[in-house]
Amino acid sequence: MGDHHDHDHDHDHGSELSETQRRVRALESILTEKGYVDPAALDALVETYETKVGPHNGARVVAKSWVDPEYRARLFADAGAAVGSLGYIGRQGENLVALENTPHVHNMVVCTLCSCYPWPVLGLPPVWYKSAPYRSRAVSDPRGVLRDFGVELPDETEIRVWDSTAEIRYLVVPMRPEGTEHMSEDELADLVTRDSMIGTGLPARPRQEALS
User: Fold this and answer.
1) How far apart are CA 189 and CA 168, in angstroms?
2) Mean pLDDT, to the nearest integer, of 61-78?
3) Considering the entire predicted model, what is its pTM?
4) Active site residue 115
5) Residue among 15, 18, 114, 136 flagged as catalytic
6) 144 — phi, psi (to 5°)?
């Protein structure tokens, strides 16, 4: 009988994501109960925008900035134009500012007043992004919020929280994961998660290939 819980340690690593998903589900059910969202309409929309249409555009922008230094420079100089050059243009794509994550600075985006969000590059905002608890805690305790999402940053990394407005929206450009030197731009784009472009997550790591 005492044996059972020991096995769980093997799975601790994989549980970070499901833990976050569970929190998001819990939050969604509360919002649904309070009548803020219609679950059926929400699911269909969210599925399309959250996972298919939206983040892929942003992921391509980020991947291109990882492999193409000239494009990267343009992205930080004028994100709207750089993103538009790939054909991703939309009402909420103008006035876009790209923020660069480095070993020293981690950027995180919140919208304290509204749900300003660069749809053309990120699709539909996750439900929690608009929630009051996320909005207030991201400002008061960004490190704690990151920890909730399974992201532990070194103490010396400064966390900057940017409040997007109707005038300015942000795209976080995460750091390129180590061990991806051999990967193509398409493969790299697959590693870029939506949360990594808001700053509440990191890109996926490449799956370890068998070491010869």
Assistant:
1) 24
2) 95
3) 0.71
4) yes
5) 114
6) -65, -40
